[in-house]
Amino acid sequence: MRTVDLITKKLTEAFTPQSLEVLDESHQHEGHAGHRLGGQTHFRIYIVSNAFKGKTRLERHRMINQSLAAELTDSIHALAIHATAPGEGGV
């Protein structure tokens, strides 16, 4: 399974998001640290979920990082997170 698909699956199961977009930005990091042939190393996530209501930005990032702990240890080099609750701006 491609890393982008695994991220999507795990976040969908963990947070039941109203919207989720996972972008593979690996091509923008060719020649930089952590880049591997074939990509699948640098990602940007846009997620809107009720699970983030009342949570700080740091708490939201920790929740996502915990859900993707195995991938962050193994295959993901960089992860940009944009996590909001429904009705909040920013996505």
Task: Give a written overview of the molecule.
The protein has helices at 3-15, 57-67, 69-74; strands at 19-24, 42-48, 78-84. It has 91 residues and is of the alpha+beta class. The chain has one domain (3-84): 2-Layer Sandwich (GMP Synthetase, Chain A, domain 3). The radius of gyration is 13 Å and the shape is globular. The chain starts with a helix and ends in a 7-residue tail after the last strand.
Descriptive terms for the model:
3 strands; 91 residues; alpha+beta; globular; GMP Synthetase, Chain A, domain 3; three-stranded mixed β-sheet
Q: Estimate what percentage of residues fall within beta strands.
A: 15-25%
What's the CATH architecture name? Answer: 2-Layer Sandwich
Distance between the termini: 27 Å
Classified by CATH, the class is Alpha Beta
Question: What count of domains describes the coordinates?
Answer: 1
Uncertain runs: none
Question: Structural class, from helix and strand content?
Answer: alpha+beta
Give me the CATH fold name: GMP Synthetase, Chain A, domain 3
Count of distinct strands: 3
Number of contiguous helices? 3
The CATH homologous superfamily: BolA-like
How many strands, what sense, and barrel or not for the largest sheet? 3 strands, mixed
